[in-house]
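Final report, closing paragraph on structural work. Over the funding period we assembled a curated collection of sequence-structure pairs, and we close with a single example.
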Amino acid sequence: MLEGKRGAFYGRKSTKKQEMSIDKQKFYAEQFVKQHSGTFHKWYIDSGVSSRVPLLQREDMAKLLNDAKLGNFDFVVVYSHDRFARSPIEHQEIRKVFKDNSIKVYISKSGDRYDEGDLINQVIDDGYSKLELDNIRTRTKSTLKSLLVKGTWTGGKAPYGYRYDSTEKEFSIMDEEIDNVKVVFQLYQKDLGFSAIATRLNRKDTKKEWRSDHVKNIITNPFYAGYLTYNRRIEGSNNSINENRKDWMMIISNIIPKAIELEEWENCWRIYTEKKIKKVNPKYYTTNYYFQSLLKCKKCDVPMKCKNQKSKGSGKQLYICLDCRFKVEIELIHKLVTKVCKDIATKKAAEIKDKVQQEYHKDKGLYEIALVQKENELMLNETKVNNVQRELSVLSRNNPNDNQDFRKALVIANQNINQETQNIRRDINILQNKIDLIDETLKMEPFWKHWIDDLYEKVSDLKETKKLRRFLVNYIDELVIDEDGKIEMTTKYFEDTFNYEIPLS
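Its predicted structure, as stored:
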């Protein structure tokens, strides 16, 4: 059957502990080829690579598919169906490449052809492969969860700043690294963003190349306060945090020497969630134009733009209306900053808190409307899936060998609808997380305690540009100025207006 044909072997294992080693996969493949008078000319092996890694990101899988297109072999042998992939869509992609290039594919474990057979049976095989992967993940999660409840380290690389002694089963602190960790938490509470903190650390730390995701990993990890977590990350993502803490399991562990207090970590989490809800770029707060996007020309009813006319030591910094060319020097209007902040801060903290919470409730309402729309889309897609699967079932039962083209079209349609459904479910999950995040924030008393303390700290420390700018952006709706220098300020949370006047000449 294979005599005179050029063969290729593909093997994959995801972990060293995996039951079927590469050597055993090769052994069974060689026995199969020997029985059918064939020989191997090419070997493709992805060692230590999970099936969750996309096809073309696996080095030897990418080579296998590319060489198939170049005609470098006549047949392929793989130990089992799931060594190629566990995703039904990826299986169809692999089959298409081999079919288009007239390459036969054999499964040495069973002796079956991977690239032949009824499409329905192929879909069943692919689905079983995916089901088995899901079962493995479920068992793994159960084990991790039980270890966490006991306060036991669940394995993996220790977080930055720590080393794990597997013999003593405890963590030790790396002093120099933990000093950097403490700097990260301190700077984040001073309104620096992830990128800005990474830049500062790169100036002082030559042993590590800091990136913004490194900083994010530290800020969002309560490990540094002595807690182990489960379900903190979104499954299948590289660095995405599950922002709905209701899904988390947090257990204090006596094997972790904490670097900071839990209260400090909670404050950083508050800042992180506040930024996520408002979706404000941290760089938005670094400008020394304190009233950028807030100052409006009364005559033209348009925001005034910031313009720096300083050139080689001459010129001025201005706010300018691009419609009527009305200009205000930055030094003149910034004299109002202290008074504006103190006028806002004279409001009672409880009153400000109530108004801010009302805005959060409005945002929640908008997210809930969008959620209902997505849920309706999901119901429609699920109906489509049921209709397609019903057609496939009828075809398989009544005409198992007929209408292959139509059946293939239905399978592809089913895959496309399933992909759309996955996307809708992802959108629903994002919206639900935002709603849950707002609910959690509204109920979290430590959040509001730190929020009120932070409010008055910003007012009392007007020298820090970022704190001042954040305060103004959070509480001012607009400042409307006329050509006589009269200004009317409205805030986001109160009906009161505040009136000021500055000399323009």
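Residues 233 and 241 are 5 Å apart (CA to CA). DSSP finds 15 helices and 16 strands in the chain. We thank the funder for supporting this effort.
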